[in-house]
Amino acid sequence: MPSGARSVMFNLLPLEWRAGLAAGGLLLALGGIAGAGLYLHHQWYGDGYGAASVKYERLMADQAAANKAAIDGANKALIETADQLSKSNEAYDAVLSAIDTSAGGAGGDQPALDARRVHDLNAIR
User: What single string gives the DSSP state of each residue in 40-87?
Assistant: First the structure.
């Protein structure tokens, strides 16, 4: 049928039918466009989402490993510092013991701090 004949046949239909057919055609066209858009969106972005997900999981694993390494390093440094403090406390105790020994007895032959000063040093410690 030539397009002019279709136009004449369309004009012969009642107004309500013509409006319904036009609205139906518009809805059909919009549905097709929306479906095509969803299909293309899935095609274009579906693979990108998968790749981003893999990259994100790899980054999270790398960050977890870095966090563990940092915590292990901090724990090692803390243990080393505690050992150094323990050794310096032992040396400090030895010095205080020597001061206590030299200041404790009456008639000691070496000049030393009096007992009150030794007590003050122990209090500071």
Answer: HHHHHHHHHHHHHHHHHHHHHHHHHHHHHHHHHHHHHHHHHHHHHHHH
Contacts of 108 (CB under 8 A, 6+ apart): 102
Q: How many residues does the chain have?
A: 125
Q: Are 10 and 25 in contact (CB under 8 A)?
A: no
First to last CA, the chain: 109
Amino acid at 22: A
Domain layout of the chain by residue ranges? 3-88
Stated pTM of the model: 0.41
pLDDT band at 6 (very low <50, low <70, confident <90, very high): low
